[in-house]
Structures are given as structure tokens and as C-alpha cells.
Amino acid sequence: MASGQAGWANDPAVGERGDAVVILAELRVQGLTKRYGQVQAVRGIDLEVASGEFFVLLGPSAAGKTTTLRAIAGLERPDTGRIIMAGRDLTTTPVQGRGMAMIFQTFALYPHLSVRANFAYPLRRKGVASREIDRKVAAIAAQLRIAHTLERKPGTLSGGEQQRLAIGRALVQEPALLLLDEPLTNLDAKLRHDTRAEFKRLHRELGMTMVYATPDQLEALSMGERIAVLREGLVVQTGTPDELYLRPQNSYVATMVGAPPMNLVPATVQAGPPAPVIDLPFLRLSPPQAPAALEPGAELLVGIRPHDLTPALDDRPGPRFLARVQLTEPLGDVTVLDLAAGGQILKMVLPEAEALAYGVGKELPVRLVSEHAHLFDRASGQALI
Amino acid sequence: MAAAARRGRQRELGKAGWGWTALVAVVSIIYFFPVLWIILTAFKTRTDALAIPPKLFFTPTLDNFIGVFYRASISAGGAQETNFPLYFFNSIFIAGTSVLLALIVGTLAAYAFSRHPLRGNDTYLFIILTTRMMPPIVVIIPIFLMFRLSGLAGSYWGIILLYTAFNIPFSVWLVKSFFDELNPEIEDAARMDGATERQVFFGMCLPQILAGLAATFVFGLILTWNEFLFALLLTGVDTRTVPVAMARTLGGEVGVDYGLLAAIVTLFLIPIFFVTFLLQNQLLRGVTFGTVKR
């Protein structure tokens, strides 16, 4: 991949990663805030994205993902805060001069231009010579398997082809940083799966820094090298997929990451002896390690992953309780069971064949597989331990 | 893809069935009948035109059309040219220029209102429209006096300015609705691809609403083309438009020459038919803009 195209307003340093020469583009967002009228979309976001990293912004709609991306791109002027890439402050640099490309949720293809002209548009605007444009367009179209559509209008393409055109129009610019705003939301399920793999492959091959916004935890976990979980305009936790899954810092991240979401059960700490125990509506747990915060009377949320529940068919050790099946949700290879116990609904995931034994209304003993229970303060949602 | 299938089904001609087709055909004939009658009358002799019961079959004549351009004159010793070629030119020039000007100004204003809204945007839009709420007859005397005082009366510029001003509100509102329908992410994408604001406007926004612009142009043209009241008062001998000239043929010492009138109307219809026909495809897309999610 050639670097540092002539005519770029900024010309970041060039480094090596694997075989590919890549443009160094570590990105820092500092104290970003943005208000639209009465709505405070972003309340102070700090991000550090390493050069060549696949970084995901995960959060529900209105969490501030799109606003953050648009501020990085220069499409929005932040109220406060700074955008720094490769050591250069871009906060006030116009959108045209940032050397970034973006893939939009709606694909934002130019409907009145042919596929060829769509690909060529960014290159023309940057003053690339037309022979060079022809060569690059042919190459990218072949790479994305839409070379046969070059003379057609985007409206005549299938959903997958439109998506690839949107990707190609961004990649043909050889941007230092690629921003992706929920690019899979408008695709059907099968295509979404394929494109996830495609993004991962492209990222590995091109070594480009990517910032990817999505409300879908599956996309975040499967593609992201690091993930920032956003909530109401703030970063709640940043970490690798494993860190977020295994050590969520609060109950919000715990329920955002992992599917089906973690079960959260209200509980109270009871005084020993010998050690304090955690009193769930259907179960008593002795915490494996007694955190300092576990004072008798403390109100908690206990987080139990659906995968950490299993029918207690043998007498293996582990905390167990009785539950009744309320609902079954067969998903093909696995089935999600809604269990009622002590007035709570718990989700449990079983292999499909195993789940067949448990119809609605059936009562069964359930065992906690993992010793590790996630403990959160009930009022603040913060993880204890 | 489902949307494409839906559109495909809608375009399957004849699906509505013969009953509905016949009903629509009958209603269409009722609508078109006056136009048809005028065109037929244009080809009738004076006797045929006035015949009762009306004649549906007759020997056509071109005399009425010749009469539009030449009239018998004793002083000129035979045929004398009329001013109708000038009047036709005036109608085309005045309506065309003013509707085009209104479209240009209106499109720029519409883009600003749509993409860079002001505080109280809707209030300004409403105020722009209020000028079209008054019956024109209310303002005709003040406007006539202003035109006389400023020397605009009787000039091309005067009537063009007036028609432009009258067409702008309509253009702003209609074109704004087309801009509002566009996907703003396309403009953002163009900016990220390096386009300047001017390139975004001319290269992205305008091409996407061409159909809407065509529709706006034709609607404005039809309104202006047929305007009579202001043209009557504010045009002079040299700038007279066809509707005014037409009215002046009415009261002669020989009574109303219906054949001649019908010939003028028929000729008068041709340019507007032509423009509408030319822009037909754009028009259909323009008036259904936004009703189909693309």
C-alpha cells in the first residue's frame, strides 16, 4: 500500500507493520464535549487509539458514538476538547484536510454518479491524475468483486455490492484513519456476518487505524482489538474484549457485553459467622474472596453469566438452587432458557440437544458452574473487588 | 430489495383491471374535453364554430391560424401583419426568464433554509409564503402606482421582476422540500472525500433534485404563462403578452371571432405542452419525490 499521497494536507509519519507500510496514525481524543440545543450528546470523552488498532465504540443509540466519530472526522466542531492525530492537533482543521475516510450507516453513495465515478470522486477531489485514478479504481473494484458493475448506478446494486462500494470508496483514498459509523446496521443478517469477516481481513491486510461505532456487542467483541463502552456521552470502560467480558467495571458494561446479557440479581450481605455471606432470593453464596466492601447489610447486584448456569444433574460441588422453566428460545445450536427462581428471571444457555429435556413449566435443580460471581454495588453499579 | 420488488409490482401495467381503467379514461376525457373542443374550434369556419347543434365532423380550415398573423386591411391594400409574433415572443421571454430567475434565487434560498437553518427558520419561511396568501387584486393598485413612479411600467424588466417575485415563495417552499428529502450523509461523505461547500451544492445536492427542479419550473411556468391581471396593467404595447392580446381581440365591431380566439389559444398551448412533454419523466419523479423511500 503506497503511502503519503501527494496533495494531502497532512502527511503523517510512515512506519512498518508486518509487510505493509502503513501510515502512523495514533489518535487521541481529549475531553470532547458537544451539545445540540438542549441535548448534551457528548459529556467529556477521552480516547487513545494506537496506530493500526481496530478500536470500537460500543453503546446504544444516543450514547454519543456518532457525535464522537463526526467530531474526529471534522464534520462537527466540538464545544470543548481536542482531536490529535499523529501528534498534530486537528481540532480546527477542516474536514477536507484530515486524511481520514468514513463509511456511513446509510452508505451515502452518490446516487447520480456511476459506480466508477463514486470510486473516483475522492481521488478527483484530491487532484490525483486521471490515469492513476483509472488504475486505482480498477484495482479496488476487482479486489471487492464489483468490477462488473462499474458503469451502473449505485441504486441498481444489491445491498452487499452497495456496502462494498462504500468500503471501496473509503479505502481507495488510502486514509490514515478509517471511521465506520454502524456500517452493518442496514444489512441483512447473513451479509452482516460476511462483512464482519471482511472488515477483519481488510484491517489485517491494510494495517489501517480503524474506529468503528456500533450498538451491537457481537460486532464489538468479534472485531475490536479494544473497545470503549459509551453511555450517555461518557466512556464507561475501555479495554480488550476479554477484559470487558471477564472484568466489567460496572453493571452497565456487564449487561452490554455478552449475549444473552449477564443476569443481575439483587442481593444483600449477611453477617457471618464465620465470613459474611451474600443472600440472593434463591441462594446463599459464600464469596470466595471476601472483598473489603462486603459489610453486613450492603446491597448488591450479583452478576451471573447465562453460560455459568447448568442443570445440576450430578453431585458435583457448587452452589445450587431450584428453578422453573418459564420460556425457551431455541437459537439453533443453543437454546436460551428463562428460569424463574425466587421471584427473579435468570437466563441460562444450554446446547440445543440438552435443552430438549426442559420444557416450559418443568422444575429443575440448577448449579453455578463458575466460582467467580460478579459483584456490583446496587446503588452505583460499580464493580466491587 | 423488498422495496424494489414493491416498485416492480406497482409498475405492472394493466394490473388495476378494465373497470378502473375505463372509469379513469372517462374522467380523463371529461377533463380533456374543453381543450379538445378549443383545438377543434380553431380549425372550424365561423359558421361551423357557431353551429347549433355543435358540429363534431366538419371540413377543417387553416384560415383562423392565418388570421392570427395576418388581417385584412383596406389601408394597407390587402393583408397586414399582426403583432402576434411579438406577443408570443413576449410571453415566452417574460415567463421563461422570470420563472428561471425565481428558480435560481429560490433554490439558493431553499438550500440555505434547509441546510443552514436560522433561529426562527419556520417563521421566515412562513413570512415568505404570506405574500402568496393575498389575492393579487388587493395589491394591484399600489403595485401599478409603484411601477409608474419607478418607470418600470411597460418595460420587460418591470413585469419580469414582478413575476420573479411572485414565483420565489413557491420555488423556495417546493425546492426546500426536495432538499429536505436528501440524505445528509451523502453531503458529509462528499466533504470527507474532499469536496468544497460549492462542490457539495453543485455536484451532490443539485444533481439529486433535478427532477424536483424541473417540476418546480413547469408549475411556475404554467402559472406565469397564464397570468392575465398584472400583465394587463403593467405591460405596454411592446411588452404585451398573449393573454392580454387575446383579450383585446374579443371586443370588435363584428362580435367575438371564436375561431380566431381558439386558434390563438391552440398556438398558446403549444409551448407549454412542449415543455411539459420534454420534462415529463422528470415531472413524474419530481411530484412523487419523497413519497417512495429509495
Description:
- The complex is a heterodimer of chains A (385) and B (294).
- Chain A is 23% helix and 34% strand.
- With 385 residues, chain A is an alpha+beta fold.
- Chain A folds into two domains: 14-99 and 175-254, Rossmann fold (3-Layer(aba) Sandwich); 262-377, OB fold (Dihydrolipoamide Acetyltransferase, E2P), CATH 2.40.50.140.
- In chain A, a hairpin with a 2-residue loop joins β14 and β15.
- In chain A, 41% of the residues are buried.
- In chain B, α2 packs across α14 (258-278) and α5 (84-115) crosses α11 (210-225).
- The relative contact order of chain B is 0.13.
- Chain B is an all-alpha fold.
- In chain B, strands 1-2 form a two-stranded antiparallel ribbon.
- The model of chain B is unreliable at 1-6 (pLDDT under 50).
- Chain B has two domains: 2-81, no CATH class; 84-257 and 266-287, MetI-like fold (Orthogonal Bundle).
- Chain B has 15 helices and two strands.
- Helices cover 71% and strands 3% of the residues of chain B.
- Classes of the chains: A alpha+beta (385), B mainly alpha (294).
- Chains A and B meet through β8 and α2 of A and α9 and α10 of B.
Topology of this protein?
The complex is a heterodimer of chains A (385) and B (294).
Chain A (H helix, E strand, L loop, with lengths): L13 E4 L2 E4 L3 E10 L2 E11 L4 E5 L6 H9 L6 E6 L2 E2 L10 E4 L11 H11 L4 H14 L15 H13 L5 E5 L7 H18 L2 E6 L2 H7 L2 E6 L2 E6 L1 H6 L4 H6 L6 E8 L6 E4 L2 E3 L13 E6 L4 E3 L8 E11 L3 E8 L2 E8 H4 L7 E6 L5 E4 L8
Parallel strand pairs in A: 5-10, 5-11, 8-9, 9-10
Antiparallel strand pairs in A: 1-2, 3-4, 3-6, 6-7, 11-12, 13-14, 13-16, 14-15, 16-22, 17-21, 18-19, 18-21, 19-20
Chain B lengths: L1 H9 L7 H25 L3 H5 L12 H7 E4 L4 E4 L2 H32 L5 H10 L5 H15 L5 H26 L2 H9 L4 H12 L1 H16 L3 H6 L7 H7 L9 H21 L1 H8 L7
Antiparallel strand pairs in B: 1-2
Helix pairs in contact in B: 2-14, 4-14, 5-8, 5-11, 8-11, 9-10, 11-15
Rg from alpha-carbon coordinates of chain B: 24 Å
Mean pLDDT of chain B: 86
The main β sheet of chain A shows up as: 6 strands, mixed
- In whole angstroms, the N-to-C terminal distance of chain B is 10 Å
Kindly report the name of the CATH homologous superfamily of the largest domain in chain A.
P-loop containing nucleotide triphosphate hydrolases
Span from first to last CA of chain A? 47 Å
CATH C-level label of the largest domain in chain A? Alpha Beta
Provide the helix percentage of chain A. Answer: 10-25%
What's the domain count of chain B?
2
Strand % of chain B is under 5%
How would you sum up the major sheet of chain B? Answer: 2 strands, antiparallel
